[in-house]
TrEMBL record:
Residues annotated as domain ABC transporter: 5-224
Organism listed in the record: Jannaschia donghaensis
GO cellular component terms, A-Z: plasma membrane
One of the GO biological process terms: lipoprotein localization to outer membrane
The EC number(s) this enzyme carries: 3.6.3.-
Protein name in the entry: Lipoprotein-releasing system ATP-binding protein LolD
Lineage: Bacteria, Pseudomonadati, Pseudomonadota, Alphaproteobacteria, Rhodobacterales
Family indicated by similarity: Belongs to the ABC transporter superfamily.
Assigned keywords, A-Z: ATP-binding, Hydrolase, Lipoprotein, Nucleotide-binding, Transport
GO MF, one example: ATP binding
Pfam families: ABC_tran (PF00005)
Length: 224
């Protein structure tokens, strides 16, 4: 079985309008296995978001390779990268970015329709996912009618709508109170375990990181 994601020798720098380069990643290596939940811990500005964007094929490294399910994605064109993002990767951010004019179910149905899933099947999956995170009573509610924790759980379900093999999360509980954070995290962990996907979760919360399978720290552009 291929690893879900392998980053090898990833480098990335920015010029930011100043002479010289600010090197954010400096030979970062990472391997994620199916069913594994990995915490990514680092100070603000250390490059966590940059690493996640490269892992999620939203950005390209200056050097190194990104291999997904045995396929080297580094030199792939935009069409192949977009297809991989749509079919293999789920993204969760600190702020849910739900579409405000659509209900919870519709927010989960839409990415499936883009992937060619029939309306009835997409709706059934949305209802199933929302039920698993305790939101059956919010299926037809719009984001403004839900609490912050309910919105974030809906965002988790949307990220899982197309059955990705890789889940990438950037501070997914960072704007939630401790109790709601625990509820959302428990929902995330149970869904990851059930589906057997791999997850890379950036967090400042060391207590949450300790509950994952392993913790990686980003130090001086490398993962340790």
């Amino acid at each position: 079985m291929n690893d879900a994601l392998t980053l090898s020798g990833i480098t990335k720098g920015y010029h930011l309008g100043q002479p010289g380069e600010i090197r954010v990643l400096n030979g970062a290596d990472l391997t994620l296995q199916p069913g594994q939940v990995t915490a990514l811990v680092a100070p603000s500005g250390a490059g966590k978001s940059t690493l996640l964007h490269i892992a999620g094929l939203l950005d390209t490294p200056d050097g190194g390779t990104v291999t997904m399910a045995g396929t080297d994605m580094t030199g792939q064109g935009d069409r192949a990268r977009t297809r991989a993002r749509r079919e293999k990767i789920g993204f969760i951010y600190q702020f849910h970015h739900l579409l405000p004019e659509f209900t919870a179910a519709e927010n989960i149905v839409l990415p499936q329709l883009v992937n060619g899933v029939a309306q009835a099947e997409a709706r059934a999956r949305a209802e199933d996912l929302l039920g698993r995170v305790g939101l059956s009573h919010r299926i037809d509610h719009r984001p403004a009618e839900m609490s912050g924790g309910e919105q974030q759980r809906t965002a988790f379900c949307r990220a899982l709508a197309n059955g990705p093999s890789l889940l990438l999360a950037d501070e997914p509980t960072g704007n939630l109170d401790p109790t709601t954070s625990d509820t959302v995290f428990d929902a995330l962990m149970s869904l990851v375990r059930e589906t057997g996907m791999s997850a890379l979760i950036a967090t400042h919360n060391l207590a949450l990181a300790a509950r994952m399978d392993r913790t990686l720290r980003l130090e001086e552009g490398r993962l340790v």
